[in-house]
Amino acid sequence: MQITVASGKGGVGKSSISASLSYLFSRTFKLVAVDADADTPNLEILLGVEEWEGKEPLPGERVAVIDTEKCTGCGVCAENCPYECIYPENGYFRVNGVLCEGCNVCSIVCPEDGVISFKPAVPGYVKFGKTCFGFPLFTGELLPGRPNSGKLVFKAKQMAREVPSDITVVDAAAGIGCSVIASVNGSDLVLIVVEPTKASLSDAERLLKLVEHFNLRAVAVVNKFDINREFSLEVERVLKNRGVETIGFIPYDRSVVDAVVSGRPPVEVYPDSPFSAALREVAERLKEFL
Ligand code: SF4
Ligand code: SF4
């Protein structure tokens, strides 16, 4: 079963909740965790991966290269590059490989033969290793400026599927971009994390459009519900109208910050905290979907 923890908005406590649920489920089930936030992966910090066992590149990308020996310096390629990544240097032109999308336009418009060629480029890697709790973690890591975070997440999930497990917990990126689409697609359940603010609710509703598009089952938790109890009820009401049950109200808890600072899942370091009690209830509710 794949449970994807997602939130339309960043900074709502999604990774603390993902790490805590992974820790709790791993006590009873065979678990695999996937960090699908390829732009800023950090589940490894909360789950304590000390050494990666392997790293697989995502193939298939390419970037343009200009042969400066043959380039006449006409600048036609730079004028037509849709990503503005060709720049003059010493009377010739060069390609900024970090920005190049490999679209081929420069090669088509260049009046000279054999000046522009392409070399393979790696947009990112999937790293894998054991967490300090004994279960494996797969992490998609995009290199600076590279596209295709969605393909990277797809590959991370594909590799995770090869490990026999009862539950896969996927920590999605914030927003509704391609890496989030790759994260939620194929999920048995999407756990939407919302804070009781208008911005968080609005972004959660945008995420819901994605969930509805893929016809996925979703439930929600309201994190830090006690910072605005009235609006937490409004969140519950709005989501209920969209067919999403709120299965937990998690209180604001200073110990979560302390746990994150020490790089551990809050439920492990502070098992008796209000956050941990609420998370255990959420985990119990999620088990009903297994
Ligand atoms: S391949 Fe496309 S993006 Fe790359 S340098 Fe050429 S025109 Fe620009
Ligand atoms: S279009 Fe071709 S010849 Fe002209 S600057 Fe670009 S690479 Fe050089």
Summarize this, please?
This protein is α/β, with parallel strands linked by helices. The protein has 11 helices and 13 strands.
Structural class: alpha/beta
Largest sheet, if any? 9 strands, mixed
Q: Remind me, CATH topology of the largest domain?
A: Rossmann fold
Helix content: 25-40%
What report would you give on this structure?
The model has no long low-confidence stretch (mean pLDDT 92). The longest helix has 16 residues, at 198-213. The chain is α/β, with parallel strands linked by helices. α1 crosses α11 (274-287) and α5 packs parallel to α6. The chain has helices at residues 14-26, 43-47, 76-80, 105-109, 149-161, 178-184, 198-213, 229-241, 254-261, 266-269, 274-287, and strands at residues 2-7, 31-36, 52-57, 61-66, 86-89, 92-95, 116-121, 124-130, 136-142, 167-174, 189-194, 218-223, 245-250. It is elongated and about 70 Å long. The chain folds into two domains: 2-56 and 124-287, P-loop containing nucleotide triphosphate hydrolases (Rossmann fold, 3-Layer(aba) Sandwich); 61-121, Alpha-Beta Plaits. The chain has a nine-stranded mixed sheet, with helices on both faces. The chain has a two-stranded antiparallel ribbon with strand order 4-7. The protein contains eleven helices and 13 strands. It binds iron/sulfur cluster (2 copies).
